[in-house]
Structure formats: C-alpha cells, structure tokens
Write a structure and sequence with these properties.
The complex is a heterodimer of chains A (175) and B (795).
Chain A: E1 16-22, E2 25-31, H1 37-44, E3 63-66, E4 69-72, E5 85-87, H2 100-107, H3 117-130, H4 136-142, H5 154-167
Parallel strand pairs in A: 1-5
Antiparallel strand pairs in A: 1-2, 3-4, 3-5
Chain B: H1 22-25, E1 42-48, E2 54-60, H2 62-65, E3 70-75, H3 76-81, E4 86-88, E5 94-96, E6 102-103, E7 109-115, H4 118-127, E8 129-134, H5 141-144, E9 163-170, H6 172-180, E10 184-195, E11 204-210, E12 215-220, H7 225-235, E13 243-246, H8 262-274, E14 278-281, H9 284-290, E15 294-305, E16 311-321, E17 350-358, H10 375-393, H11 397-404, E18 413-414, E19 420-421, H12 426-437, H13 439-451, E20 455-464, E21 476-477, E22 480-481, E23 484-490, E24 496-500, H14 509-521, E25 528-532, H15 549-576, E26 583-586, E27 589-592, E28 595-601, H16 602-611, E29 622-627, E30 636-645, E31 652-662, H17 669-688, E32 693-694, E33 700-701, E34 720-723, H18 741-757, H19 772-781
Parallel strand pairs in B: 1-14, 12-13, 16-17, 24-25, 31-34
Antiparallel strand pairs in B: 1-7, 2-6, 2-8, 3-7, 4-5, 9-17, 10-15, 11-12, 11-14, 15-16, 18-19, 20-30, 21-22, 23-24, 23-29, 26-27, 27-28, 30-31, 32-33
Helix pairs in contact in B: 10-18, 14-15, 15-16, 17-18
The chains are: A alpha+beta (175), B alpha+beta (795).
Chain lengths: 175, 795
C-alpha cells in the first residue's frame, strides 16, 4: 500500500488504530479521532448500506447495532467503537437466506425509495431481539427514532410484525 | 384448446406484484449517489451565507488554500470569468451560482472548496473569510411591496421593485355580475406556509470530466436527468452528446430534486478544471435552507352563494413569495402553476383568479412538493373555503359538497378556468367515505361529547386534480414540451428490457412498467427488466414529478408494447402460414381465428424475429414510443378525518382517517396504496408539525431535523383506504396519476377537522401547521391565528 501525503502537511494527521468486529469479521483500521462511525463503515469499509441523512441523530438512516443495541452511527466516533461489535444491514442476511425482517419489508411493502430501510430494519432487529412478541404500539415506539418520508409507516409496522411472527415460527403470508 | 394466461399470475395489470427494486434495498445494496466512488475522486463542500441580505465587501480564500489536501477554492468572481456566476432558472429568471455582488438569502452559496476528503473541505470552508455589509431584509410579500422596500434583484435591468409578475385568468366581469346576484357571500383568507419536501437523502452530484474523451459524466440526485442534460448543455456550453447524466437510486425526491442547484454546477466546473471526479454531497441544513421549498402563498377568496347551497361564482387572489430567485419548476405558460384548477370538482359557473409573485430574502424554489404545480395550495384553499361556506350557510358540510359536485353525467365538464375534466364518480366517492367514517354516528358522538366539555371534529376534503402534464400544446418547461417516452426491446428468448424517460424515486417503476408490458404482451413480468435514469441509454423524457409518470411515461410503455405486438402479429401470421387478418390475439398468444388450437406464443414470435422472419421484414423486435397525452388525467379523492381537540392545551389527536381514491385502473394495487399512505402522512405532517419559517432578520427557523419536525411512526395515525374505479377515458390502460393526491387533498381534511371541533368559537382560520399553541390561542382569545413570517426571534 502506498499513502500519499500533501507536501504542505507539516506533521502527519493524528490517527489511532482501532479494532472493530463488523458483521462478525475483525477489522483493524487507522482512523482520525474525529472520524464518524458512519463514515468508517461507508467510506473506510465500503459498507454503503448504512446511509447518512441528517447529521443530527434525528433521521436514523445510519442506525446500526453496536453490541446488539441500536445506535445512530452518524453521531458516534469510530474510535468509540474500538473493541466493540457492529452489525450493519450487510450483516443481516446470510449468503443465501434473507433475515425475516428483510422478507417482511418486501412482503408487506414496507419500503419505497429504500433510503431509510436499512436503519429501520436494524432498529426493528434491536426490538425483536429483546421482545419477540411486540404490539403495534411497541413497534411504533421502537421505530420512533427513524424517519421515513415515503411509506407513512403503516406498512413498516406490518413488516416488523410479519417478521416477529415468522421468527416465532408462526405461519406468515408467503411471498 | 390452450388455456388463456392468468394475467394476475404473470404479474400483469392489477397484480400486487412484490417490488423488484426491494431485492437490493433490503440488502443495503442500493446504489445512491453518495455510495458511488470513482478513482481519484475529490470532495466538494459549500460555504453558505449566514446573512439573508448583505453586500459582499470582500472574500479572502488564502487560508483555505493553505490547508493541506485542498485542491481548489471557487468563488463567484472566479465563476464570473467563465460566465458561470449566474444560471438560468426553470422560470425564465436567473439564479446566482456563487454570490458575487450580494447575498440574497440565508444559506446562499458563496464559495466552495474541493479537497481530498470532505472533512478537509469543511475545514477549509471555515477558513474562508467573508466580509458582509448587512442590508434590510424582506421575508413576506407585504414587506416586498411596501413603499421604499429595498430592491432585492438590483442585478437585473428593468426590475425597479420586488414584483415578479401579475397574472390573471377567468371572467372578471361575469364573476362580478354573479356576485351581485348572490344571497350570501362567504370569504376566507389564509397563508399556506412554506414547506420543504425534505427527502431523507440530500442532494448531491459526482461530476467526472474526462479530458481524453471530452466526455462529462455526472451522477446526480435528479428526478429529471434529461432536463439537467439540456440545462448543462446550455449553461456550461458543452455539446449535448458529450454530457451523460446518470441518476442512480434516489433516496426520495418529492419535487426537491427537480431543479438545477449551484452545487451541481460547481462540481461540474471543478471537475473540468481539475480533470478529476468531484463529489458534492449536501448536508441536511444545506438542503433545508437552500434547496427547493414549496408553497408560501397567501390566498384570499370568496364564494357567491345561493341560500340552497348552490355556488354561483368564485373569485380569489394569490400572493406568492418566491424567495430571492424565481426558480419555480412549472409549465412556462402559467405563472402560479395550475392554481386555476381550484374548484375543478365543483360545478362553478364562473370564476376569476388574480395572482401576484414577489421576491424576498428567502431561499428560491417553488417546487411542486408532491404536487402538480401549486395544485396543493389550490385544493387546500378550495376545501377550507367549502367548509367555511357550509358553516356560513348553516348547511351540513357533506351535503353542501354533494350539491355542488360535478355529476357523473356531466362529463366531460369544462371548469370555469378552462380545464376539461373527463371522468369520475364524485358523489359515490363521498358516499363511500361517509359510510366508512360513520358520518351520522360521529355527528351524534360529537354532540354528546360537546355536552361533556369535549371537542370532537370532522373534516372532509373532496377534490379532483390535474395530473400528468402535458399535453404538449399547453405544457412545456423552458419551451421543451411535456411528453414522455419509452423504448421496449424484446430479446430472442422472449425476455425484454424497457427504458423510459421517467426517473422513479421509490414509486416502483421497475415493478410497474414491467406489469404494463406484461398486460400488453403476455410476457411474465419477471422476464422484463426496467432501466431508467441514464441519458446515454434512456429515451428523452421530462422526468418524474407531478404524478406524471403513469399518465405519460406509463402510457408510452403501453404504446411501445402495442407496436411490438403489431409486429409480432405479422411474425405470427408468417409462422402460422395465414394472412394477418386471420390472426387473433389473446394474452401472450396469437392463434388462427378458425382454428384456435393452432397458435404461437409471443415468445415464439420473438424468436422468429431474430431467426425466422419473413422475406423483406426488418429483423428484431423492438419499438419506441413518444407519448403526448390528449389531456391531463383527473383522479378524484375524498379524505375524511376525525379529531379530538384538548381545549386546555390545544393538542389535537387524530381519531380516524378514511381515504377514498379513484385513480382509475390500478396497475399494482399494493404500490398505489403505499403511495396514498405516504401522501396522507405528508398531509398530516404539513397540517400538524412541519414548520419552516423565518424571523425578521431572515434567519431560517427549521433549518435541521431538531427544529423541522417530521412525523415518526409514533405520531403518524393509521389509515383506512377505500377505492372507486373510474377508468381514464384517454389513457391507454385507463390509469390516472395518484402519487400526490393524498398530499394535495389531505391537509384540508386534517385542518377542517380541527376547525370543526372549534366551530362554535367563530374562528375562521388557523394557519398551518396547526400547532397546539395556535389552537390554544384561537380557543382562548376567539381570534384567527396567522402563521405568516416574520416569527419572533429567540430572545
């Protein structure tokens, strides 16, 4: 690898070495302390399924799981993820099998432009991991940190309930 | 005899086919502009003005140039040397790309920096020193037209004041005569507040100029790639065939991604100067304070009424605040869009509309936010006015509408402003809605609740709206006629590709265009791939906005498929060894009329087009169609909302929402319902919380998502949907536009419900968003509440 430096640079930009487990894989990176986790994932690791929408922790398009908890990666520094485990949308499904949330969003038309979808699914996963049998109200509350401009949420809620039912082993409408 | 294909099973018309595009989105494998990385790519950031109106005394960029990793700092002065400091707008005005003389709104683009990464570019923007001399600020039309108001557009010759246009339509004298005959005149005035479409994905572009080939490729968040190509060709004076605009996946548009923005132009120039790809991705505040807003119109009007409820005439005046540059994206013939479609669903004999547009020190735009060019304001005023007139006459608001709705046997119906509505079952839609909400029961509940001090209310909104511009005789943007296009290529194994000049942003074109082909040809929808958004491969089209894709591009898809079927018929005749006249068609198959068992499938015809065509026939099986619609499509909708208002706090909760939509034939019912629910949510947002405004200094209040509230899953009500189907008489498959109906007709239903709950106070209007403090103010002081800027500054 070659790293090119701008001749005007007097001193090297300070960096820190971090180790993050991303979707089960250990990744080691040299990062600027100010680098946001969202940017490490998107630019550094090329996991572009994590989107950035608002920069202020409101829209939730950048939601990932850190140690199983739903976190908005646009307001977490990459160095804060050092030693932790991160799950992104790319880690939701196996090589061939979709996660029930992914199936549910498709089956129940829970997405339109798709931009909020990865964050929605990860926020929903954090809910279903702690509560396998949520009510509609539980789902609406759990997703209240994620904005969608296309769907009006009704089908997103149905998608999550569909996935919850499937994860519980109940019969769901076939695709 | 072979069994005819089941159209629903092959994913044809009427099938709630699961969406094709979801396969990538649910895996995080969408390809949005910011996901694209090109070799050697640099990053651009924009420095914006903190002031709304100020003269630029100096700009010092030296400290920015000194930051390691900075490649270019652009200012208006540098743009001017290339004649790029200003650019034309879509409404025959000019807009600053980077400010030279003055800044005219807060957030205006002043300079930009290109650097190795976006963090460095942002650092360098902060290192640029700009000295401003503040000027008096204008934030509404009243200030703009006051004596001695500063002239915002002193860059323009022949612009002595802040008035952009005065425009009128209708029959002034006839309307006056009708008003003289009225038993009663009902009046209303209100402000439809500025709103921002605010897709979650901000705007951005990656310009990639290749010196070796002279080709400019731009990846861009645009709903209308061909319009952008034309604009770049004209503005940057590059040859059109050397410009390729690619619109990848778009994270929501809602009209915000129609205009040409300074950031696009700067990234293009930077790439040309540096000969490297340059990426610009706007941040959310940049998006909210500088890109295409919507609405911001003051409407006042009155109805001439007979005591039995019949409307005799309507007149209204609109005062539109267009911001610093008149850059509305709308057909050129109409200055205030299609505002004159107001009252189109009612039988109004005569009407008159006057409109004035003014500049202010606010961001430009005037985009059609989930709207066909000011139709949202038109229908909002109409439905607020209808409710108020019913109250003034002492009539039931549903019955008052029924008396005036155009009757089923009156079509085609000429509206007082000259539109021709062509189809609908208006009264039926109203009945379905009233039945679903339990109208009479609710009125009883409302009475009972009132006796116990509770305030319930019901709001109705019925409307038809003009969707799907053209026709080309009346509708053009910058002279380019508003038709659309499709190309269909059937491969030899019977698989196919469709390309259109539209560009979806979540509407599901990849799914539904295939369904139209499936309906016309009997090919399984899964065998048809849809591609849009690349100007090098897609036929010329005007893009996706104003609910025009299904009415225009979708029609073009059907027409292209019919051309393919016509050729396939000739191939079938050849294969069946009969004359073409003896060939009959059923879905997916041609057969001999006298021997129905003797037939060939469309797939066999496709193979023959490449392997066994008759002598003299041109090989291949493909067609293109440019579709110029004979009329707009006229969907109808009835939205009914019930609410409870807390008299102590002014907070109102939605109890029920019923939507009855007649958008003609539904290609994919699942997708149509998704569109309607999205629209109902935006309607709720506009009526309840979406608040972007300005203080007296022109500071944008609502410049980020902490202040500009968008509804979440928690606040958003549930929706009950119903349908009525009146096919469009001129569309090839009978479809009408639908994507924006609920956002257009919805807001009045919510506001009317709140106003109904406080009707006894005599308050005639509370401006949107109907915030709790405004309701409380209206209830407490028994007065109308205006939401017009300026709002008070903090402290």
């Amino acid at each position: 690898m070659t790293t090119l430096y701008d001749e005007r640079a007097g001193t090297d930009v300070p960096t820190r070495r971090i180790t993050v487990t991303v979707n089960g894989e250990t990744r080691v990176a040299e990062v600027e302390p100010r680098l946001l986790l969202a940017h490490l994932l998107r630019q550094g690791l090329r996991l572009t399924g994590t989107h950035t929408g608002c920069d202020t922790t409101n829209c939730g398009a950048c939601t990932v799981l850190v140690d199983g908890k739903a976190i908005k990666s646009c307001t977490m520094l990459a160095v804060q993820a050092d030693g932790h485990s991160v799950t992104t949308v790319e880690g939701l499904s196996g090589a061939s099998e979709l996660h029930p949330l992914q199936e549910g969003f498709k089956d129940e038309h829970g997405l339109q432009c798709g931009f909020c979808t990865p964050g929605m699914m990860l926020a929903a996963k954090a809910l279903l991991d702690r509560d396998p049998n949520p009510s509609e109200e539980d789902v609406r509350w759990a997703l209240s940190g994620n904005l969608c401009r296309c769907t009006g949420y009704q089908n997103i809620v149905k998608s999550v309930l569909w996935a919850a039912a499937k994860l519980r082993g109940e019969a769901v409408s076939a695709e | 005899m072979t069994k005819a294909l089941d159209e629903i099973k092959i994913g044809g018309l009427g099938s709630s086919r699961k969406r094709v595009e979801d396969n990538r989105f649910i895996r995080g494998k969408g390809n949005y502009t910011d996901d694209i990385v090109l070799p050697g790519m640099l990053h651009m950031e924009i420095l914006r003005s903190p002031l709304a109106h100020a003269r630029i005394k100096s700009i010092d960029t030296s400290r920015a140039w000194d930051i390691p990793g900075v490649h270019l700092v652009l200012t208006g002065e540098m743009m001017a040397t290339r004649n790029l400091a200003w650019m034309p707008t879509l409404s025959y005005d000019t807009q600053a790309v980077l400010a030279t003389d003055k800044v005219r709104f807060q957030g205006q683009e002043v300079a930009c920096v290109v650097a190795d990464d976006p963090y460095i570019a942002k650092d360098a923007c902060e290192a640029i020193q700009v000295e401003y001399e503040p000027l008096p600020v204008i934030v509404n039309p009243q200030q703009a037209t006051a004596d001695g108001a500063p002239v915002i557009r002193d860059d323009k010759e022949n612009q002595p004041d802040n008035v952009i246009y005065n425009w009128e339509v209708g029959d002034k004298d006839g309307t006056e005569r009708a008003f003289a005959q009225a038993d009663k005149i009902s009046t209303l005035s209100l402000h439809y507040p500025r709103s921002h479409p605010s897709p979650i994905e901000c705007c951005g572009s990656i310009a990639d100029f290749n010196r070796a080939t002279s080709k400019l490729t731009v990846y861009m968040t645009t709903q209308a790639p061909h319009i952008i190509r034309a604009a770049v060709a004209l503005v940057a004076e590059l040859p059109e065939h050397m410009i390729r605009i690619i619109s990848p996946d778009i994270g929501g548009g809602f009209g915000n991604k129609v205009p040409v923005y300074p950031g696009y132009v700067c990234s293009i120039l930077a790439s040309i100067l540096l000969e490297r790809p340059v990426k610009w991705i706007e941040d959310k505040t940049g998006n909210l304070i500088s890109t295409g807003f919507a609405r911001d119109v003051y409407l006042e009007g009155e109805l001439a009424l007979r005591n039995d409820g019949k409307i005799l005439a309507m007149r209204m005046h609109t005062d539109a605040d267009h911001g610093a540059f008149f850059s509305d994206a709308q057909p050129s013939k109409f200055k205030i869009g299609l505002m004159h479609s107001t009252f189109a669903c009612y039988d109004v004999p005569v009407a008159h509309l006057t409109a004035r547009g003014t500049y202010s020190n606010k961001a430009p735009g005037g985009v059609a936010y989930r709207c066909s060019f000011r139709v949202t304001e038109a229908m909002f005023f109409q439905e607020r006015m209808m409710q108020q007139a019913a109250y003034d006459l002492g009539l039931d608001q549903a019955e008052f509408r029924r008396v005036n709705l155009v009757r089923d046997d009156d079509f085609p119906h000429r509206t007082p402003f000259g539109f021709l509505t062509d189809s609908g079952q208006y009264a039926k839609c109203l009945d379905v809605g009233l039945e679903a909400i339990g109208y009479q029961d609710f009125l009883r509940q409302k009475e009972e609740a009132r006796a116990r001090g509770r305030r319930l209310g019901i709001g109705i909104s019925t409307m038809t709206e003009p969707l799907g511009a053209g026709n080309s005789r009346e509708y053009d943007i910058l002279g380019i006629k508003m038709f659309d296009s499709a190309e269909l290529r059937v491969h030899l194994t019977g698989k196919a590709i469709v390309r259109t000049g539209a560009r979806g942003q979540g509407q599901g074109h990849e799914t539904t265009w295939a369904q139209i082909v499936s309906h016309e040809l009997g090919l399984p929808a899964d065998d048809i791939v849809v591609e849009e958004g690349d100007t090098d491969t897609a036929p010329f089209g005007m893009g996706t906005y104003a609910s025009r894709s299904t009415p225009v591009a979708g029609a073009a898809v059907a027409m292209a498929a019919r051309k393919v079927r016509a050729k396939a018929r000739r191939l079938a005749a050849h294969l069946l060894e009969v004359s073409e006249e003896d060939v009959e068609w059923e879905l997916g198959r041609f057969y001999v009329r006298s021997a129905p068992d003797h037939g060939v499938t469309i797939q066999e015809c496709a193979m023959a087009a490449y392997s066994n065509m008759p002598d003299g026939m041109e090989p291949g099986l493909e067609a293109s169609a440019y579709y110029d619609p004979p009329n707009l499509t006229w969907p109808f909708a009835c939205y009914i909302v019930t609410v409870e208002v807390d008299p102590d706090t002014g907070v109102w909760d939605v109890l029920n929402v019923v939507a009855v939509d007649d958008c003609g034939v539904r290609i994919n019912p699942m997708i149509v319902e998704g569109q309607i629910m999205g629209g109902l949510t935006e309607a709720y947002a506009m009526s309840n919380m979406q608040f972007i405004t300005f203080d007296a200094e022109g500071n944008c209040v609502g410049s980020n998502y902490m202040d500009y509230l968008l509804p979440t899953a928690w606040e958003t009500p549930g929706f009950e949907l119903h349908e009525v189907v009146t096919p469009c008489p001129h569309h090839p498959i009978g479809a009408k536009g639908v994507g924006e109906c609920a956002a257009v007709g919805g807001p009045a239903a919510y506001v009317n419900a709140v106003m109904d709950a406080i009707q006894d106070t005599g308050v005639r209007n509370i401006d949107m968003p109907v915030l709790p403090d405004r309701v409380w103010e209206a209830l407490t002081f028994r007065r109308d509440v205006s939401g017009a800027p300026p709002v008070r500054s903090d402290g």
